[in-house]
What we know:
The protein is an alpha/beta fold. Helix content is 29%, strand content 24%. The chain is built from seven helices and eight strands, in the order αβαβαββαβααββαβ. Strands 3-2-1-4-5-8-6-7 form an eight-stranded mixed sheet, with helices on both faces. It is globular, with a radius of gyration of 16 Å.
Amino acid sequence: xxxxxxxxxxxxxxxxxxxxxxxxxxxxxxxxxxxxxxxxxxxxxxxxxxxxxxxxxxxxxxxxxxxxxxxxxxxxxxxxxxxxxxxxxxxxxxxxxxxxxxxxxxxxxxxxxxxxxxxxxxxxxxxxxxxxxxxxxxxxxxxxxxxxxxxxxxxxxxxxxxxxxxxxxxxxxxxxxxxxxxxxxxxxxxxxxxxxxxxxxxxxxxxxxx
Length: 210
């Protein structure tokens, strides 16, 4: 895999030490790149990439509290609903568009991915792997999975499109997205053996099919 070791990507703030997923994304982002983070929350990922990669970062977020937190964190943010698209941004405006642990919560997945590839050279997504073995066991026992990566109960979850690694890769093949790299993690550990069974969190870097 042509990427830096995750352990080598660190930011000076101890506030990020519990987010190994940030380091995975940072390993794929070139220094000085222009990055758009969709569903950016309080802007923590942008702050991390700014510290670790000296990026120019922008966020899209709908929640009022999170938008205010972005301003307080010095993050450029636009308050908007992702489901309405990215009409505010011109085609090819960014080097990377990131959708971190939000893919499973959006309604129109096809449109989101299409828009990501329209406004950027590359897309980066991460999502909890529904094929993780602990999730499978809970389904076999007759319950919806609840885990570190899927912390919600069935009745209050925002997740509406849970998927496995195989599901996402088939989706990319059918929607003109070429996968450049994949990394599968369980906690701080990269999973290379039987990743669709043993991996908790999946990361993909992709581009428009040429």
